[in-house]
Design a protein that fits this description.
about 120 residues; mainly beta; 7-stranded mixed sheet; globular
Length: about 120
């Protein structure tokens, strides 16, 4: 079992910044991939960013590339999402997820473990 707990969500003005964190506990593997997904009301959950835990390779959706940065701290078993130049369209519930190797990092159906989500609201 793996537990994921997100924190850091809140209300921010357009153009501002916010940093989300995801703390992992339980059984963990160095070969895991950590991802951030987001879901706005009435829309499907979509991929935002991912990082390979051991190697550190990162991947981003075009909608957030250049504005968001994903990182991890192996010793703390924590992954972060630094969000800069936020836009109203970034408003959504953000979810942290984890999967083992064997699927696409951008495919939400490939992820086995999910956090409870944290709300991010960007005002215009």
């Amino acid at each position: 079992q793996v537990q994921l707990v997100e924190s850091g969500g809140g209300l921010v003005q357009a153009g501002g910044s916010l940093r989300l964190s995801c703390a992992a506990s339980g059984r963990t593997f160095s070969s895991y991939v950590m991802g951030w997904f987001r879901q706005a009301p009435g829309k499907e959950r979509e991929f935002a960013a991912a990082i390979y835990w051991n190697g550190g390779s990162t991947y981003y959706a075009d909608s957030v590339k250049g504005r968001f940065t994903i990182s991890r701290d192996n010793a703390k078993s924590t992954v972060y999402l630094q969000m800069n130049s936020l836009k109203p369209e970034d408003t959504a519930v953000y979810y942290c997820a984890a999967k083992s190797y064997g699927g696409s990092y951008s495919d939400k159906y490939a992820y086995r473990y999910w956090g409870q989500g944290t709300q991010v609201t960007v005002s215009s």
